[in-house]
Amino acid sequence: MTSCERKQRLPIGVQSFREIREECGYYVDKTGFALRLVREGKHYFLSRPRRFGKSLFVDTLKELFEGNRELFEGLAVEPQWDWSEPHPVVWLDFSGVNATKEGDLDVDVGEQLRDMENEAGVAPLDASVRGRFRHLIRSLHRRTGRRVAVLVDEYDKPILDALRQPETARANRDYLRGLYSVIKSCDAHVRFCFLTGVSKFSKVNLFSGLNNLKDITLDRRFSSICGYTEGDLDTVFSDRLEGLDRERVREWYNGYSWGGKERVYNPFDMLLLLDTHEYSNWWFETGTPTFLIDLLLEKRVHWHRLDGMVASGQLLSKFDVGDIAPEALMFQAGIPDGSREA
């Protein structure tokens, strides 16, 4: 990767780490978090709202495990990573899935596995999707001699999209539970596992087959693994802040905190503000999940009752099809403290 004399592009909506780095986009270095995760554990789960940088972080993990050192030049992880041993990556991405009909989810997962099998040159088994998933992980390990990094993005979208169709939502949940259980059965072949999504579904009902996940959603050490801190604005985006009232910026966009004292800014909001210098509810206009609005209206939630609410880990762990507390829904969907009307 060639170095850039100046950073030119605000990566609005860009989820490709490679694209940002190769096109000299502004990038807030999250690779130190990636390094810590890999060094300190193996199986992780993270919940964050939409448009908060989850997919970009997962893509960063992919490029890291594949050993693409040129993309990490000058970043925190670059001098501390063993670039001589790349690992194969299996990445399931449910962001584009529309699984509101029976069989949709199985077809989509099968297509994703087919693409990975073709790219890796692994002959597919004439078996179920779970069997092919298991075969792919084991084959990649045996072929390369290195254990596999398994990444799952938007793990919960097939369930959330079908919440107003409870039978389909439960069927999708049960399907995913079986799929994710494959990861544990292949533990000897897995180097690292990272699942992320908007919500934190009950472990009993979704992750019973993958009960060794470490949930870092409310871990203070990772409270800024996604999002921008005050320090990020001062360093990475200093040349874009001219003319902006920082107190007003904080009032509009600095209302997120996950278990720590430090608050972070929504990246999508901030990038659009830095681009337009106009204050608006950018996230709410483009990233609000339809299921959030539908369920809040259905439950007749009064906004003032949620003011100052603190969501506990116990409350969030009860999240499941047909049993969703409004407080957990609001917290996980990402309505920030301090949201303003346009």
Largest sheet strand order: 2-3-4-1-5
**Succession of helices and strands:** HHEHEHHEHHEHEHHHHHHH
Uncertain segments: 337-342
> Major sheet, described briefly?
5 strands, parallel
Give the overall pLDDT as a whole number.
85
Distance between the termini: 41 Å
Shape: globular
Helix content: 40-55%
Q: Helical stretch count? A: 15
Percent of sequence in beta strands: 5-15%
Number of strands: 5
- What structural category characterises the helix and strand content? alpha/beta
Radius of gyration: 20 Å
Write the layout of secondary structure elements.
Layout: H1 17-22, H2 31-40, E1 43-47, H3 54-65, E2 89-93, H4 104-120, H5 129-144, E3 148-153, H6 157-160, H7 166-185, E4 190-197, H8 203-206, E5 214-215, H9 230-235, H10 246-253, H11 267-276, H12 282-287, H13 290-299, H14 313-316, H15 326-333
Parallel strand pairs: 1-4, 1-5, 2-3, 3-4
Defining key terms:
342 residues; 8% strand; alpha/beta; 5-stranded parallel beta sheet
Give an overview in words.
It is a single chain. By secondary structure, this protein is α/β, with parallel strands linked by helices. The chain contains 15 helices and five strands. It has a five-stranded parallel β-sheet. Helix 5 (129-144) runs parallel beside helix 7 and helix 13 packs antiparallel against helix 15 (326-333). Residues 337-342 have low confidence and may be disordered.
